[in-house]
Amino acid sequence: MKKTYHIITIGCQMNISDSERIAAYLESYGFKSEPNRVKAGLVILNTCGIRQKAEDRNYGLIPEIREKNPLVKIILTGCLAERKDVRRRLDKVVDIFLPIKNLPELYRELGLVKKINKTNDYLEINPKVNSKFSVFIPIGNGCDNFCSYCVVPYARGREIYRSASDIIAEAQKFIKQGFKEIILIAQNVNSYKIKAAKADLKFFPNKKAGEEINFPELLVAAAKLTGDFWLRFFTSHPKNMSAELIAAMKNNRQICRQIHLPAQSGDDRILAAMNRKYTVKHYLSLVKALRKAIPEIGLSSDLIVGFPGETKKQFAKTEKLMRQAEYDMVYLARFSSRPGTAAAKLKDNVSAAEKQRREEALNKILSQTAWKNNQRYLNKAIKVLVQEKNKRGEWLGKNEQFVTVKILGSAKENLQGKFVRVKITEVRDFGLTGVHLSS
């Protein structure tokens, strides 16, 4: 086997972060990155099983890779790695099925000699970060919520969290390296909870060993690090959204004025069937509290259309929620039955055409609320982290609220990875345009 690797990542921020750790692990064993998967000795597919569409990509992609690269060794990791039906289906074309938590043991499968003092916890592997200015820092892995439609607890296991000192030290390292955006991630970041160990007390001097450290406290500790950066986190569960977390965001300006708070439905019976453990009234009370504490907050969400048994009247309540919450962004998904979940036992009785109609209806509302919210930026100077150029050579970035900003007048300058001031001259539903203000 050639000691070259190619990683294909499908899915969420957690998968992106995991792939960065896979790359670092392989390079520590002498592998080199190969941009062409047909030439690589090792191809790793970091899979997503949240939706059928994401799952199906693998069934076409893997045989194609095998056909064009017969000598390749294929590894399948991510959400599909432990599914028995997936293993049966791909058994003849996949060489190694690797649950991500078993990454430190991959050397055995590859016939390599273990490096001395290598960690047994994959989250402790120093990642090979693709960006030079933005980094995901996983604070844990797994999920205890068991939402009836979601396969994540079965794919990743129960919640396990890293020590606070490891998380803060990793953030500190990247800030010292010049990273501008630190993003704390987990399946449910605000359920973070650990017992303080001796090493944690350096960052939490008011704690005693054995006392609890929760997510708001972790977030505040990260926000107090010295450097030119801002701090984000994904993803919050409404049942764990606390007044303490809202106060932490309000009182620490290093924390971006943005939160992703998945609602999933606007009907209480559907929420109960989803096992979401909150009501629409409670969800809207959180939105109200966030907007009162941080009027400039950017709010995004996830919503599922066509959950089994969802009637037109129940869907109308989701439309109502959309109008009341006035989101900046919503990630919409048509219900997709996932093997092994509670919802897989329910009859998927909303037609594909009706799911599409409902998705289009919500997108129309979203376009209206996002356009309305973006009016607040018109003729204002805002802070933007520049990310990349578009096909026309114009710089693009994100503001604190995670809205995309097109920057005019600085195409010849290298602004990537820098904070700049931009005066907004044009507003759209899902984007802003402005002029770079020279410092």
Provide the fold topology.
Elements: E1 4-9, H1 13-28, E2 32-33, E3 42-47, H2 52-68, E4 73-78, H3 84-90, E5 96-98, H4 106-109, E6 134-138, E7 140-141, H5 152-156, E8 160-161, H6 164-176, E9 181-185, E10 193-195, E11 212-214, H7 215-223, E12 230-234, H8 243-251, E13 258-260, H9 268-273, H10 280-293, E14 298-305, H11 312-325, E15 329-334, H12 352-374, E16 381-389, E17 395-399, E18 404-408, E19 419-427, E20 432-437
Parallel strand pairs: 1-2, 1-3, 3-4, 4-5, 6-9, 9-12, 13-14, 14-15, 18-20
Antiparallel strand pairs: 7-8, 10-11, 16-17, 16-19, 17-18, 19-20
List keywords for this structure.
439 residues; alpha/beta; Rossmann fold; pyruvate-formate lyase- activating enzyme; OB fold (Dihydrolipoamide Acetyltransferase, E2P); 3 domains; 5-stranded parallel β-sheet; 5-stranded mixed beta barrel; 31% helix; 23% strand
Describe the protein in words.
With 439 residues, this protein is of the alpha/beta class. The chain folds into three domains: 4-109, Rossmann fold (3-Layer(aba) Sandwich), CATH 3.40.50.2300; 123-375, pyruvate-formate lyase- activating enzyme, CATH 3.80.30; 378-437, OB fold (Dihydrolipoamide Acetyltransferase, E2P), CATH 2.40.50. It is built from twelve helices and 20 strands. The chain has helices at 13-28, 52-68, 84-90, 106-109, 152-156, 164-176, 215-223, 243-251, 268-273, 280-293, 312-325, 352-374, and strands spanning 4-9, 32-33, 42-47, 73-78, 96-98, 134-138, 140-141, 160-161, 181-185, 193-195, 212-214, 230-234, 258-260, 298-305, 329-334, 381-389, 395-399, 404-408, 419-427, 432-437. The chain has a five-stranded parallel β-sheet, sandwiched between helices. It has a five-stranded mixed β-barrel with strand order 16-17-18-20-19. Strands 6-9-12 form a three-stranded parallel β-sheet, with helices on both faces. Helix 3 links the parallel strand 4 (73-78) and strand 5 (96-98). Helix 7 runs parallel beside helix 8 (243-251) and helix 11 (312-325) runs parallel beside helix 12 (352-374). The model has no long low-confidence stretch (mean pLDDT 94).
